[in-house]
């Protein structure tokens, strides 16, 4: 499954987030995980090998950025999302920039930024694991596709919101058909050990 195949990737993600309650948990807490990670990562300072007196650092600072991990993650997310879905990525860009500036600003100014970032991060992960266990009755997608959980989930929860607003209905129908197929395969696989045990 190519990381640039939006339909297949979204269907895989959707098969783990089919229950509407779990979906809303992720809509709230996936951005919270990204934001809180950027808070903590900002506290580490610039990436190794990046001189604060160098041209790169000076240029980034002039543009309102810092040469740390959150900035390079932001660039990666934006470029990757633009390839996956240009319109959705463009609509999501203001949110990503808001996450970036608020998280890095908190890290730079608040004396308890680490505690806040760590607290939000832990609570957000706990909420997602709980919702998977209780409502989806299966492990989170990160156990099968770590890159999707870390890289694609923020865009996917945003596209879920866009779907609610009528975005790309044909694409949504195609994805939902794939999700239903994946769910049937999962349910069949879950039943088969029980049948074997009875035999």
UniProtKB/TrEMBL annotation:
<keyword id="KW-0812">Transmembrane</keyword>
<dbReference type="GO" id="GO:0046521">
    <property type="term" value="P:sphingoid catabolic process"/>
</dbReference>
<dbReference type="InterPro" id="IPR009305">
    <property type="entry name" value="Mpo1-like"/>
</dbReference>
<dbReference type="GO" id="GO:0005783">
    <property type="term" value="C:endoplasmic reticulum"/>
</dbReference>
<protein>
    <recommendedName>
        <fullName>DUF962 domain-containing protein</fullName>
    </recommendedName>
</protein>
<feature type="transmembrane region" description="Helical">
    <location>
        <begin position="71"/>
        <end position="101"/>
    </location>
</feature>
<keyword id="KW-1133">Transmembrane helix</keyword>
<dbReference type="GO" id="GO:0016020">
    <property type="term" value="C:membrane"/>
</dbReference>
<keyword id="KW-0472">Membrane</keyword>
<feature type="transmembrane region" description="Helical">
    <location>
        <begin position="23"/>
        <end position="44"/>
    </location>
</feature>
<dbReference type="Pfam" id="PF06127">
    <property type="entry name" value="Mpo1-like"/>
</dbReference>
<feature type="transmembrane region" description="Helical">
    <location>
        <begin position="150"/>
        <end position="167"/>
    </location>
</feature>
<feature type="transmembrane region" description="Helical">
    <location>
        <begin position="113"/>
        <end position="130"/>
    </location>
</feature>
